Every structure is written in C-alpha cells, then in structure tokens.
Amino acid sequence: MNSADSESLARRLLAAGYVEDSLERADVAILNSCVVRQASEDRVYSKLHELREWKTPERTIAVTGCIVAKEGDALRRRFPHLDAVVPIGEYEPFVSALESRYDYSQGEALPPAGRTGVSHFVRVIQGCDHNCTFCIVPRVRGREKHVSMEAVVAECREAVAEGAREVVLVGQNVDDYRDPDGQGGLAALVRQVERIPGLKRLRFMTSHPQDLERELLEVMAASDVVCRELQLPIQSGDDTVLKRMARGYQTRHYRAIVENARRLMPDIGLVTDVIVGFPGETEAAYLNTRTLVEEMEFDVVHIAMYSPRPGTFAATKLADDVPQEEKLRRLNDLLGLQREIAARKTARWVGREVEVLVEGRDELQRPYGRIRQGKRTNILRAGAIAAGDVLNVRVLQATAGQLTGLPAA
Ligand code: SF4
How many A from CA of 200 to the centre of ligand 1? Predict the structure, then answer.
C-alpha cells in the first residue's frame, strides 16, 4: 500500500516537472511512513531527527503515510523543522503549495511523466473493514473505500501504455473489493484487467482467508497472465488465538483454502504472515502454529513478535503476557523451521524451465526477475536482456530465497 501511495505521489510530482535526486542535491524530502509495528514508526522518527542537519530555510521536509493519521499535528510540535504533514491520498493541496514555492515546470530537461519500473501498483481499496485486535490499520487508514472498476482498469491501461509489464492490485484486504457501481468483486476486476493488451502479469495482494472466494482461484488457474501466488496471512495456527485476534476464520477453513488452491494450481506460491507471542499464546498454542507452518509448506513466512500498538483492542484489553525472551525463542524457532522448508521447496525448481519477467540488474550486472509463483530468479550469461523482457530460464541452483539459471535454449 505504501509503495502504491509513494508511486502515486511521485507521478504527480514528476508531472509537475520535479525529478528524483540525491538528498544532498534535493530541495524537498518526503517521508512516506508505516506504523504497523513500533519499529517502523521509530524509523520515521529517526529519519526525521537525521533530516534536522539537512534542513535549511530553502528546503522542505514533508511526512505522509499512516503516521499522519496516528500522530497528526503532534509531529509538527515534536519536529519543528518539519514543514508539511500530508494525509494519505490528499496530495493536491501539498503539491500546489510546493509548486508555488519551487516552480520546475519551465525547466530545460523535463522528465517524461511516465514510469521506469516494470511493475505498477494500483490501489483498489483504501482502508479496512475488519477489526483484527492487534492491528492499527483501520484506525490510521479508515474504513474501506473502493475505487471504481472503470478507474482501476483505466489506470492499468495507462500504466501498460507507458511501459509497465506487470500490475499489482493492492488493498489491505483486496478480496473484499466491490465495484461501487455494481460491476462485481475482485474476480470480475481481475478478468477485466488481464485482458489489457501488452500486460504480461497481474498480481494482487493482500488476501484474507475470510473473504477469498473460490471463483478467484478458478480465474487464477485459468489465466496465463494472473500470477500463481497468494499472499494469505494466517497470523496464528491456533484457533483460540485466532479468536482473540478476531480474525474471523479457523485453521480448518484456512487449510481448506490452501487445499483447494493447490488442487487447482499445484505449484502455487504461498506467502503468509505469522505473529508469535500474541496475548494468551501458550506453548501448546505456539506448537499448533508450528505444526501448521510445517504442514502448509509456505514459500515465505513473514514472522513478527507481537508488540502492542497503542489504540488497538489488544493493547488496551489484553495483557501482553508472553515474556519477551519467550517471544524471541518462538520467533527464532519458527524462522529456523521455515528456512528448512523454503530451502526444500525451492530445490524442487532445479532442472525445471521457468518463465521470468526481468525486473532489472543486480550489483554484479546480472539480470534478475521473478517467476509467476513469485520466486526471485537470477539469470546468468543473459546477453542483451532488458527490464520488461520475459524469457524462459533453465534453473541450475536454488537457495531458500532465490533461483539461478541460464536462458533456456
Ligand atoms: S484484515 Fe489486515 S488490515 Fe484489516 S484489520 Fe485485519 S490485519 Fe489489519
């Protein structure tokens, strides 16, 4: 979501004649913030402290993103060198104020207001109607607002016309998408977008086990464009913990979704999120999560230790009763388990031919990209390959996180 917001603001500024540059040369620094965990929020404060040195009367510092809804004008009081606090999506007044201060519209070398990236993020829902007890998102992003299908398709068309090869439809809970004009949900939207000529790949994130519809899996399975990857957070493998989290599903429901997805797409990439040490998570409850992770064989598991976020139900009503060292032990235990699973799963790709959408070159100038199931793939002896190309690669090696291969003959 933050990438989508950053892209949207950057495009607006590029259109006004601004260019991205190093901090040393820049007139304006904009921080897009995340507050989903305390660590992310602390990073924003630390950046703001660092920028104190950079700030001069001629320069502007702005903050946008979730911290604005959470902290509001308190940010200005705490950081007097901060010039602007910009609510998510309300960029126009800010850009107009910038334009009256720094007018680059007559510059000599106006950059195209287009894109350089292969992927384009399109926000289809803002906010979330769920109320997971640990989550601050509904408070900082508000209730769901759905973008019309017509507008989403138009934005995707424009992105492809400007060179994007992949679009990623994003929402806090993308499965809840409903066209405000009654044209249908996410499956209908995906069907419309995948038909756009020139579009090579379509992804969507993040899914919710309570809302993911069978029809969507069928659309994925039947398509050559929709990627075979699901971002489907489980959060816990224990039903009592899931209930305290107010996730709205049980583990048997989650297992049934995965079973169905794998029946339709045996090689589907599966990414999940897990929180360890949630209030009341006993050793037995943790072991249920461990068993589920072992059984599901996820490709990627994002694991976080629970930390109370002020303003959430869990922070105010549930005792944070799992000691920090125990949270850490569970985190490390699960990380170790998942590393083994990921290495074993990735090794299954060795010897196979995969289709890679090239995204760029790494520091060794090797092209890299991703397969439709989401794995990053490095390409050796690739020759004149450019970002946006799609090519078949024979996989030679695999580590837990990535594949390496040669262009297939
Ligand atoms: S569904 Fe996701 S974004 Fe919405 S409240 Fe739950 S965790 Fe937060």
Answer: 30
